Amino acid sequence: MLSFENDYSEGAHEKVLQLLMETNMVQESGYGSDSYTQQAIEKIKERLDCPEAEIKFLVGGTQTNQIVITTLLKNYEGVLAADTGHVSTHEAGAIEAGGHKVLTLPHTLGKIDASQVKDYLETYYADPVYQHMVAPGMVYISQPTEYGTLYSLEELTALSAVCREYEIPLYMDGARLGYGLMSKENDVALVDIAQLCDVFYIGATKIGALCGEALVFTKKNMPKHFLSSIKQHGGLLAKGRLLGVQFLALFSDNLYFDISQNAIDMAELLKTGFKEKGYKTLIDSPTNQQFFIIDNAKLEELSEKVKFSFWEKYDDQHSVVRFATSWATTEEAVAELLEMI
Amino acid sequence: MLSFENDYSEGAHEKVLQLLMETNMVQESGYGSDSYTQQAIEKIKERLDCPEAEIKFLVGGTQTNQIVITTLLKNYEGVLAADTGHVSTHEAGAIEAGGHKVLTLPHTLGKIDASQVKDYLETYYADPVYQHMVAPGMVYISQPTEYGTLYSLEELTALSAVCREYEIPLYMDGARLGYGLMSKENDVALVDIAQLCDVFYIGATKIGALCGEALVFTKKNMPKHFLSSIKQHGGLLAKGRLLGVQFLALFSDNLYFDISQNAIDMAELLKTGFKEKGYKTLIDSPTNQQFFIIDNAKLEELSEKVKFSFWEKYDDQHSVVRFATSWATTEEAVAELLEMI
Amino acid sequence: MLSFENDYSEGAHEKVLQLLMETNMVQESGYGSDSYTQQAIEKIKERLDCPEAEIKFLVGGTQTNQIVITTLLKNYEGVLAADTGHVSTHEAGAIEAGGHKVLTLPHTLGKIDASQVKDYLETYYADPVYQHMVAPGMVYISQPTEYGTLYSLEELTALSAVCREYEIPLYMDGARLGYGLMSKENDVALVDIAQLCDVFYIGATKIGALCGEALVFTKKNMPKHFLSSIKQHGGLLAKGRLLGVQFLALFSDNLYFDISQNAIDMAELLKTGFKEKGYKTLIDSPTNQQFFIIDNAKLEELSEKVKFSFWEKYDDQHSVVRFATSWATTEEAVAELLEMI
Amino acid sequence: MLSFENDYSEGAHEKVLQLLMETNMVQESGYGSDSYTQQAIEKIKERLDCPEAEIKFLVGGTQTNQIVITTLLKNYEGVLAADTGHVSTHEAGAIEAGGHKVLTLPHTLGKIDASQVKDYLETYYADPVYQHMVAPGMVYISQPTEYGTLYSLEELTALSAVCREYEIPLYMDGARLGYGLMSKENDVALVDIAQLCDVFYIGATKIGALCGEALVFTKKNMPKHFLSSIKQHGGLLAKGRLLGVQFLALFSDNLYFDISQNAIDMAELLKTGFKEKGYKTLIDSPTNQQFFIIDNAKLEELSEKVKFSFWEKYDDQHSVVRFATSWATTEEAVAELLEMI
Fold it and tell me: What are phi and psi of D224, to 5 degrees?
């Protein structure tokens, strides 16, 4: 059965697998000290135009969020995030399990803005009993957001400025960063992110890899003994090469960006097709996640032929559902889907 | 340069990679709900002759230990382990980060025995202020141990009996389980482990996989919402298939056992060769880790031609070093090494 | 300067101090195994008409909340609470530091209702990826609430029924329970609480003691090794008698209830006085916390003569402030205050 | 029945209770912002001759240890302590519950020395995989130790020097500090401790107070938002005055030191008496805890007339038991005890 359920339904891009094959029997040291990891790091640093960047490869997004937030926050601090942020909702309490509160701000299409953050910080420090409350110690955003939307360069610059003013780090969850970078509406380049964020990650689990996220500290701010922290959180692979090789493939010959472009192209095709057939979007998402309002009867019929994600109830007759394209989506699959609707 | 540094220097066995290739573009659901994971679980259950076994695949050993120990222990409990146990020494505090003390017992060649455990439990409960101390709530052993040694069936049966008497789970860390199972000296079968342990894992990161451990709850004792606990600890792969496919390959056609046998055969060859040249062992290890006492001058010379692990100082002139064979070790490599010494 | 800042501005009721004096040099065992603690427990159990109640005395409210929530929840669970609940806002992240998320529900005058709880539970379990979210594992309410309001017997019964249906405990924070019990509007007796809640505490820090809360498990549901959990959280007093003696005094001769009555009487006097002078209340609180809307200029003047708590901004000219009466408030003090306004 | 079971069998010194009475109805602000707390802090700072000292009052020793260790350590660090240290053995896992490993060193009569600490640090950093192990991030000692012994000025100076060399804090648990300070054998003054330790506490629960420890940061090194950390650990008393008043009494007119002297005098009397009757000591303790080797038959007889603590088995016929004197012990009580033996 055809699936637009998510952007991790297939394995890895063939060039990624191929490099895994080619390098497979070379003996390398463990825990990320292998030569492929080093090469991949260099390629990414070049791409970021950020020589002082410190990079570690981790297996997944929740793990990365947990390690970053737990190691950067002081014990009395929490992380500010949109109430729709992945850390707020879908990580089974990983942040709290690490001892920290997620301090939620109401989202607008998945985003928070600089003034909300500033207000929160000001209100906190103005409160005579502020020490009875959790201190806001970091800002978490996702690019693209859980709603597929994007921060503009202006918005990101403003968020960065507030964080610098209050000396708290700005952290960007880039689980789908490639899909954001290649969106037509995007005006935030990788180099901007390296400038404006204190820490962020470039997601590959959803973009061409079997698993893997590249975590980047941009300001020589990687915590001391960070390898210990990764190990302590169960995130240190014995065969670190698994991640290094994959990122080496993805950051050679523009692969990461080219395959991200495919997801965007397929999403545009899909959106146009749905709109032509009269379907309405919940949000006019510029990235690879597309949200349509569909009649429930139609949905049931559709669900026998294609997989997608239920998002939320719209009204008694309609639901919002998500169709996700990816690096692996083909024109044929989109055409097949458009036939069905 | 030749390496006997550890048993995770190469990638994966070619049949594992091949199955990853073959299944790569099939669309599957995420988080371990894919069909390969299901097939792999069935194959393992058969092999264990334990239809009620509940199995989850996790990425690495520290992660597995942390998740098992944190979810099975009550907050006031700690885990009993040899002072040389991996959880006691080399996990960067992962168990304590999860809130639990490792209660160490003095080891004998990496092992603890039933009487030590019984004594600890009796002494604890006999203390009038036992509630001021951490309650022993689980026993952790590794098979083979960190010294390459093995629990016999008699020893394991006795440990199991004490645990049942005090109603605490017996947990076996099987990071190198295959190498233990195929050792000539071994008399503990997989089915025995499934009978005697409450929970254990079959390690594959060190035996043929890119990454992956198969965690087995043997008595319908997998904690509720265990998927949440995995997620909360950053251990839930979006592409759970990565683990499922690898275990499917390893548990088809006896692969896991055959390649484990190779490591044992190579270790025997290596040990015989060293002994013939007059080297002494620290421990007469029956598995894939071999520990030799070597003159420091010789070691320095050797270290330019081959990688190995420093284990500990023996005396002022000698060190103990470890040579590890693996599923990937060839006769040629062993011969080359024996030439050097 | 006169203070209505809170209900913990003075030391202890004189009868409490007196019993501390009288018993001071009697030698007793530590950690709550003293005879006064035992006597106090018996007196409270009688009052609750709940022979199976298990009672421990703890030092303060945040400590009590943290210990209860951490020991009763499984690691994958969070606690449902009003967004205005003390655990949600003013405990500096104590619940999260214990590893658990506070799952907030929008409050109505500080309260949540059974249908909100039921909806949350149903929605959670209906979600196909519910295991990616924190499981609701307990309901936390405060009586009176942080807004001084009270749950009626009907409301409490309904909450209790939902909790029983989903088999999660209902926990009542009774930091000011005496002031709730003696309110004219109250229809919930201590015996009802013992029936309807699974665990609750009777607060004394704010009602006559130097410090101390009596934590009650009502259904033989005190977790095993609970003394260890108290110790582990730094809550076990060497001189447990300090708490035992105070509760013995408070639960002899109806003292706890009589002095609670005083706070209520003084609050009524105060409210009537304010209203007669034309002040409006934010909430018509039936307990010892009274919230008035006051002109900012007037407030500044007032703040030089009397202490009170700023609550929140009302509009550009007005603020909401809280005046709290207590077991120690005198008619003279209220009269003096009413003179000032 | 007479008790030498411990040094917390009675309530508080009468002057402490008296000041609680006298100040009882004065209205003060909460959470340690009261005037008595301020006065007590000033008195202690004077006594320490350490104007930059930062002082907080906490309720008990385990709580203090947990808060200090959790806030000063980084997440990847553990605390070095004697294997007999209170944090290692009798705090029900409070340190591990805070996420940190206790790294034990073998004790000599309850003490560790500078060379052990230096060795541990050197060995740790020399290990090629040191980041897989818990980093030693603090040294914990107790003065007097759990065996009643004392660090000399020379020993303390050496420990301090190692800690400074490796830039890790030296923390002294002074649960019985007064009893150490007044010992005839002691050559470490309070001012030395303020110089040599980075953080320590002056215990009062066991020396004249109902409860209370004075935590001192000596180098302007109190962590930011420390009040939040106290609150988060359930250690912030609403009526902080309870602790402030008690320390104010104890540090007025030399009271803390005078009553500590009493315990030492009584311990000397007791020890001399035992020795005269032919009893042997396990350790020749110079402080208020005395450890005697006693025939088991005699012990059983004795246990019907006086309370003491079982310490450990000596041989099949003998046990080691502890008799503790305190601020409250009278010459009559000692005489009565000596009659019995």
Answer: -55, 155
